[in-house]
Prior knowledge:
Layout: H1 17-27, H2 33-62, E1 71-73, E2 88-92, E3 98-102, H3 123-128, H4 136-144, E4 152-156, H5 163-171, E5 176-180
Parallel strand pairs: 1-3, 4-5
Antiparallel strand pairs: 2-3, 2-4
Amino acid sequence: xxxxxxxxxxxxxxxxxxxxxxxxxxxxxxxxxxxxxxxxxxxxxxxxxxxxxxxxxxxxxxxxxxxxxxxxxxxxxxxxxxxxxxxxxxxxxxxxxxxxxxxxxxxxxxxxxxxxxxxxxxxxxxxxxxxxxxxxxxxxxxxxxxxxxxxxxxxxxxxxxxxxxxxxxxxxxxxxxxxxxxxxxx
Length: 186
C-alpha cells in the first residue's frame, strides 16, 4: 500500500490516507487501515447525528414548535370598525395558530356610505371614503403570511366570501373557507 497518497480518502471526510497512518502510529493502534477507517467513519456519523439533533432542537425552540398554539390579532393603530357590519376572519394554521382580522377602516364613519345598497354593491365607497384596506378575509390571510399555506379560514359576520377574497385564499394556499354563524349580533 502506498502511504504517500496526497488526496483525501473517500472513506473518511477530510483525512488523507497518510494522515490515517500517522494517527494510527501516534495512538499505537495496530489494525488494518480499513478497520481503523470504519471506526473513524462510525465516529463521524455519531458526531454528525449529534450535531443534527442539536440543530433541530435549537430550530424547534426558535420557531416555538414546542409551544401551545397562539392567537394573533391584526388591529392597526387609528383603525375603527365598519359602520355597516363587522366581519371577522380567522386563519387557523396547520399548527393551530389563529390569525384574526376584521374589515376595519382607517377613516371610520358613523353612517355607512353604502347605506341602503344591497350586499356586494358599492365596495368602492369602502375604499374611497372609509379607507378600508381590504375585506376581513384578505386582511387575515396577509397577516398570517406563510402560515396561511394549508390553513383554514373561518368567516364570521357575513354569509359568503366574495370572488376577490376567494382568489386571494387560493393564491395563498388556504385549504377551505368556513362560514360561521354571527355571534356579535350582526
